[in-house]
Design goal:
Helix 5 packs across helix 11. This protein has 2 domains: 183 residues, Periplasmic binding protein-like II (D-Maltodextrin-Binding Protein, domain 2, 3-Layer(aba) Sandwich); 112 residues, D-Maltodextrin-Binding Protein, domain 2 (3-Layer(aba) Sandwich), CATH 3.40.190. The N and C termini lie far apart (64 Å). It contains 11 helices and 14 strands. By secondary structure, the chain is of the alpha/beta class. The chain is elongated, with a radius of gyration of 23 Å.
Length: 305
Amino acid sequence: MRVFVWLWGAVLAVAALQPLSVGAIERSVLVLGRISDNPKAHYEQLKPLLDYVVPRMQDVGIVEGRILMAKDAQQMGSYLRRGRVDWVTETSGTAMALQQRAGARPLLLTERNGVSAYHTVFFVRRDSQVESLQDMKGRTLALQSPLSTSAYLVPAMELLQHGVRLEILLTPHDSPAGDAVGYVFARSELNISTYVHKRVVDVGAVSSIDWSDDHAVPPAFRNDMRVFYRSEPVPRAVEMVRQDLDPVVRERLRQVLQEASRDPLAGPALAKFFGTTGFHPVDAASLRALERLRSGLARVRMEVE
């Protein structure tokens, strides 16, 4: 009996110590997350900045950095809720999806290639009769993918706000109902511009950045097309953190990232980090834009998806 009591006491002691040990280890690790369909390429883009950040956070107990990929927003939301990811870098639409799913909080706005905000442009061939969003009823629209902020979420939001219903088509050659816009996913901005130029669809929607990019919209195509509607601007990208991240760690991460754009040592890491050229505070105008996206996302999910 004495042996049994001693063994049981030992088991209880180990059980009591284990959570504290695991917690101490996890609190010293900063986990950077990314939704990815190409984990190897994204790892190489994320790792240099994480290696820059971690040594500068030792004063708040961070001694190691890890990267965790997710296949979609649902999986990343689960990681955030369970505390498996601390920090996520995403486009603004996906960032708001993570706020809805997991309560993630905006930390900083991300400037990429000198651009901190962009908008969506709707375009047609010059000889098209479409002059407004309402004119799109009964016509077809090319978008990129359900993950795109500027080439899916924002166009869908704008159409709904203007009283235009959307329905997905099986192929670009299908016809929508007369009171709806039929949309298809073209998978890339170049395909979107090609679909419009070749009259496969009536309208295309891309970001203002891609509209000016000769790789996405070749000059020969652009000369034959015109923009008839522009959305309000939205933040280019957002750094998000889980809602229960230690405030001390959160504020130190904010400080390190903001200072990085002024540190020559961070230059190569920022360039690999999706062409980041700076991190900026989330101001009132940006918060309003993000709130519009969050509300629009909820409506798109309910009325379109």
